[in-house]
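Hi L.,

As promised, Helix-turn-helix domain-containing protein:
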Amino acid sequence: MEDEINIETVGKYIKSERERHNFTQNDIARITKISPAYIQAIEDDNFLPFPSSYTIKGYIKSIAEAIKADEFYAMKLYESANKNISEIKHEDIVKQKFVEEHQKSIKLKKRLFISAAIIIVIIFGIIGFINIQKAVRTDNISSKLFSIFSAKHKHKLVNKKKSLKSKYIKNKSNIHYKVILKGKVIRKTWVDVSIDDSRQKQSMLYPGTVKIWKAKKNLHIKIGNAGGILLSYNGKYLGKLGKNKEVITLNFPKQK
């Protein structure tokens, strides 16, 4: 009984009983028809080569009967070892399940993160597109407003120019000229004019040219060809001024 207590595994117990009864593994194999390799595996407590626990239990029972060992005790040792293995396997399974669940959770979180990132990108894209559309509309509105403003401003400038021009014309028309001299050139001639004591540049006039000179105070004109120009003074025709190529000088207003 003391020996049984010291036996820790079914393999050691089977081997001890076989050797105690002077059986070899080949003897057991011949009696039980079990392969020596399986007998060696059982004595080594190596149960991996066996297809199932039922096969192991059957082999242990047959070997125990052959070597005249206590098959119930041998079975108890195996079941005890198998229970520990089962507990270890169960713990491994629990750990494996935990790892798998954790990995699934990580994958799910990654998918959620990627989905959220995609949604955020899409939202920002939509917001950006809307802002671009608003900017384009704003630019169009600004362009239209600018065009309207420019048109109004241009219209105001045109009106202002017209107003200034009309004022200028009105002011100009209000200017009282004492001398208005109009000349129509019929032959080539030169003229030298002085208006209000300010001498003008001498100029050459050609047939068909019409010239008007105005003065507030006085006007002096020197003509290089008296027969080449017809003059009217304040709307009154002066008649023939002289001969062709005759140089004359006229002063206005005329002295009474």
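The first strand starts at residue 179 and ends at 185.

Thanks again for sending the construct details.

K.
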